[in-house]
Amino acid sequence: MSNIIEVSNLTKSYKELTAVDDLSFEVYEGEILGLLGPNGSGKSTTINCILSLLNFSNGSIKIFGEEMKPDSYGIKEKIGVVFQEVSVFDELTVYENIDYFCGLYVKDKEKRKEYVEDAINLVGLMDFKKFYPKKLSGGLLRRLNIACGIAHKPKLIFLDEPTVAVDPQSRNNILDGIKKLRDEGATIVYTTHYMEEVEILCDRVIILDKGKVLAKGTCDELKELAKIEEKISVEVNKLDNKYVEEIKNLDNVADVSYNGNVLLIVYEKGKNNLSDIMGLLKKENIKYNKIYSERPTLNDVFLELTGKELRD
Amino acid sequence: MFFHNFKYSLKTLFRNKAMIFWTFAFPIILGTFFYLAFSDIENSEKLDIIDVAIIKNEEFESNELYKAVFKELSDKDNKDRLFNIKYIDKDDEKEAKELLDNEKISGYLEFVNGKPKLTFKSNGINETIFKYVTEGIVQSAYMGRNVSETKANLKDISRKNLSYTMIEFYTLIAMTCLYGGLLGAIAINQNLANMTCQGKRIATAPVKKWQVIISSALSCYITQILGVALLFIYTIFALKIDYGNHFFKVVLLSLVGCLAGLSLGIFVATLVKAGENAKTGIIISITMAGCFLSGMMGISMKYIVDKNAPIVNKLNPASMITDGFYALYYYDTFDRYYFDLISLLIFAFILIGISCIGLRRQKYDSI
Amino acid sequence: MIVFKAFLKILNKNKSIIILYTVILVVFGGINMNASDTNTNFVASKPNVMIINNDEKNEITDNFIKYLKDNSKIIKLKNNEDAINDGLFYRDVNFVIYIPKGYGKDFMAGKNPEIEIKTTKDYKASLADMLITRYIQVASTYRDMGNTDTELVKNVNETLAKQGEVTITSKLDTNKLERITFYYNFASYSILACLVYVICLVLSSFKDIKIQKRTIISSTNYKKINRYLLLSNGLFSLILWSLYVILSFILLGNDMFSKQGAIYMLNCFVFTIVATTIAMFIGSIVLNKNAINGIVNVIALGSSFLCGAFVPMQWLPKGVLRVAHILPSYYYISTNEAVKSIETFDKESLKPVCINTLVLLGFALFFVILTNVYSKKKQKIG
User: What structural domains does chain C harbor?
Assistant: First the structure.
């Protein structure tokens, strides 16, 4: 697997704020890389720097092995970008918008026609070709925004929070579309602060905060980082304090808490945790309503790394 | 690519209703208002036949000189006719007063003790002429002979085309040219990554920034010219506005005027760090201030500025355009026209030149 | 209260528009005026004449020039043809007379030397033409009688000094009222533009706010909001009217403290009411904020140009004035023009004023009904 993007030691500071701080990472061919971080963590700034829209104070950026400059048209040709803001012309219809932006890349008219149709089908705007953006709902508008960025079938796609404020149907449609793009051979850089999306979509994740890489790896690798392995919640109405103490002494248990309703047990790595606790509950004849086990989420990882929730 | 962007740029401009209103419809509407309001002003300044009354008492009846002069000056076949005289019987003096009160006549003449006495309601030009003619007769009588036998040998060497209301329509053309700046600003905004998101998209596409900007600017320029052409057609055929007899020079001036407007828009859009609305506001303010100084809201304003602070109007693009049309209409020589034309070109090139320096930047510190 | 607060917020956002129209009013309606003339004797109109004398110094020419100086307003421009031509075009000068070299000598030699002139061909130019012709005629007559230079000058001056007796009947200083009339006529533009602009913006903003309010605080009555809205619009109109009246006192001073002044103010008040109802009507039919700017310009400029707010009524073509009868501004301006020439206040002289006022109130009623009919219709459809 070759490196499509190599970012090394990227630093970008505004007057007082350092938005990106000595950031280095790389993107491999054919993967979906998630850039995950809370609002203001430097995701969009990083992308704008990679795209050579912003000046940066330090570092170097290579795309397809070449240094990225504002006039690196050879590189730009192979890139597609979907910005966070909906960036389309109000005066042009859905079809015309896609055709316009696609036309900046693809000169052959016949080929372009085909590409535009493909893009419309991909995001599911077949019935809205002649609509003006003002008549589209928020979700459809986002889809149009994506179609405009990817119609020219780029090899490398940047998606900057394309699903902000989108209804669940549209979101699923969008995520499916992105997977399809990857399956067709594109490399994708995807920024978001929705970790569910990252978990379903991304092959690899980089967690950013305050312009720095906190962690990177596949979802599973990241979860490895967290000390916890499993969380078991038990809905139980009355529980004597002595049982809590008893559970604490079970194997692998890292922490136990009880709030009068739910008993939450956090485990370090180990096996047979669920059967252990169920055995104990049965032995002591404690009645419970529900019991379920969870794998740790990226949010837990983030919490572990920074001490704060991801979605702030 | 050039044509692709050009085509879509035209599409967006023509579908922008606000722009279409301000650059196409508004000048035509305003021109119609001007026409309706000003079409009669110059006629009303021509000397009309003056309505007066003369009280026919014995003294008047016996004075042949007066009778003869007034008869001649009110003769319908006389091309120098001045008066429409109502002769009133001496018993109906009241009637004369009534006519005067109701402004049916400018004044009346009555002989009192052998001397003519004039009664007017107020000061004015008609009154002055009536008085003047009457005094002429008094003076002739004093000299004892009719002086009107001799003719003064005056040779009129004035220029033709003295219709000053034309200036209104010239400022209107100037306004339309400069309003084109609004279009220019849109073209630039659309293509700048630090102004609009569409601009960001274009910045990441493999196209030369210059190509995009020039093709957008060209589409604006063509839209502008179309607007100005429409206005010309309307003013020439519907409003009968006179632009003089030098068709190609008029076209050339309009083309350069549009270029000046476009350059103003590009300049403001590139160099003013403000939102789109603020930029629009600045362009409209500059245009309207320029038109004000070149006489749109009062024709004499242009003259006052030209006379007392000529430098102001030499820097004012609206005035350069207006003055160019004025020179074509009023003068036979083209020195003044070419001066205006070249000033406009210099104006446009300076603004475009400065804008180019600003536009050369490819990356931004913040967007 | 929330209505007033929102109203003030919108007002504050758009204060630049109000300031703009007020400044326009002050610049055009207040300052750009000639000083008034209080003379009750007859004052002859004088044409603007420029003399270019190429003759040597001699009695004949000097006296001719002196005569012109006495009977016209001498304009001094730069003695270059462009400056003179510009002066003529813009009516800075009505008549230019070029006295040729050797004029005096040639004249006394019995010739009738040619004098070049430039003229604007309007009535002032005609007057100048008459003055010059008269002088030459009288002078030629004395020359033909065999006068010497000195005799001729003396006789010509004596002859031309003979004047008729003139009385003026009107005591009214129309000049002063001219200024007030112009100010108030112009105010119709500012009032209409300001009110339509602001009220339309407020109404279109409230259409959004109302929807919000209904979902957020259902306790705020919809009708109550409408009542408050009407009240705030009325209050705004009242404030604008007061502002313009106060400005008229500042700009026009004592002349406003008169019966005529009071009528101007009241007439303006009635017009403000009509303008408010027009604004409410337009505000109820126009939903698009972007369109407001265009509509304001067309309506305000149209009314003002067609009804004589900018160009005095007597200079407008008859056909235009006939069409203007359908516009409220026409009746407002008619009253102002009528007041200008009222000398004694009696039934007869105030009749046109009353009729105009009734028509204006009729317009106000008409627009109120129209607004109601329109919004009812819309409710049914919606």
Answer: 2-38+177-381 (no CATH), 48-161 (3.40.1710.10)
Q: Do C166 and B131 touch (CB under 8 A)?
A: yes
Q: Across the interface, do C160 and B153 touch by the CB < 8 Å criterion?
A: no
Residue B260 has pLDDT above 90, yes or no: yes
Residues A218 and A236 in one domain: no
Query: pLDDT at residue C32 above 60?
Result: no
C-beta neighbour count of C300 within 10 angstroms: 24
Parse chain B into domains and list their residue ranges. Answer: 2-40+164-361, 47-160
Per-residue pLDDT for C36 more than 50? Answer: no
Kindly give, in sequence order, each residue whose CB lies less than 8 Å from that of residue A311, ignoring residues fewer than 6 positions away.
A38, A193, A194, A299
Chain B residue with the nearest C-alpha to that of A57: B365
- Asked whether residue A300 is domain-assigned, the answer is no
pLDDT value at residue C37? 44
Rounded to a whole number of angstroms, the distance from the CA of B121 to the nearest CA of chain C is 5
Nearest to A103 by CA among B11, B224, B19: B11
Domain for residue A304, yes or no?
no
A149 and B CB contact within 8 Å = yes
The candidate with the shortest Cα–Cα distance to A144, out of A108, A189, A99, A78, is: A99
Q: Which two tokens stand for residue B266?
A: 């590009």
- Partner-chain contact A87 B363, CB within 8 Å: no
Please check the confidence at residue B287 and state whether its pLDDT lies above 70: yes
- Which pLDDT tens digit goes with each residue over C209-231? 666 555 555 566 667 777 788 88
Tokens linked to C214: 């209904």
Chains C and A share 3 or more Cβ pairs within 8 Å: no
Helices (H), C217-346: 222-252, 259-285, 289-307, 318-324, 328-340
> pLDDT digits over C356-373, tens only?
999 999 999 999 999 888
Q: How confident is the model at residue C382 (pLDDT cuts 50, 70, 90)?
A: very low
Residues of B in contact with C112 (CB under 8 A): 150-153
Residue A284 has what DSSP assignment? Answer: T
**Phi and psi torsions of B304, nearest 5°:** -60, -45
Higher-confidence residue of C272 and C218: namely: C272
Same domain assignment for residues A124 and A203? yes
Is the CB of residue B110 less than 8 Å from the CB of residue C165?
no
Confidence band of C263 (pLDDT split at 50, 70, 90): very high
Angstroms from B223 CA to nearest CA on chain A: 16
Average pLDDT of chain A is: 86
Query: Does B37 contact C310 at a Cβ distance shorter than 8 Å?
Result: yes
User: Chain A contacts of B15, Cβ < 8 Å?
Assistant: 91-92
Find the CATH number of the domain harbouring A176: 3.40.50.300
Provide DSSP, B300-358: HHHHHHHHH-HHHHHH-HHHHHHHHHHHHHH-SS-HHHHHHHHHHHHHHHHHHHHHHHH
Smallest Cα distance from B205 to chain C, Å: 32
Average pLDDT for residues C305-311, to the nearest whole number?
Answer: 88
Q: pLDDT by residue (tens digit) across C60-81?
A: 899 999 999 998 999 888 888 8
A223, A243, A263 - which closes a domain? A223
Which pLDDT tens digit goes with each residue over B198-250? 888 998 899 888 889 999 999 999 999 999 999 999 999 999 898 988 889 99
* Closest chain B residue to the Cα of A108, Cα to Cα: B1
B20 touches chain A (CB under 8 A): no
Closest residue in chain B to residue A157, using alpha carbons only: B204
Q: Is the reported ipTM for this assembly greater than 0.90?
A: no
Task: Tell me the average pLDDT across C99-118.
Answer: 90
**Class at the top of the CATH hierarchy for domain B47-160:** alpha beta
Residue B361, chain A, CB below 8 Å: the answer is no
What's the total number of domains in chain A?
A: 2
Report helix, strand or coil for A259. coil
Question: Is C127's CB within 8 Å of B125's CB?
Answer: yes
The chains found to touch C (3+ Cβ pairs under 8 angstroms) are B
B&C contacts, CB < 8 Å: 211
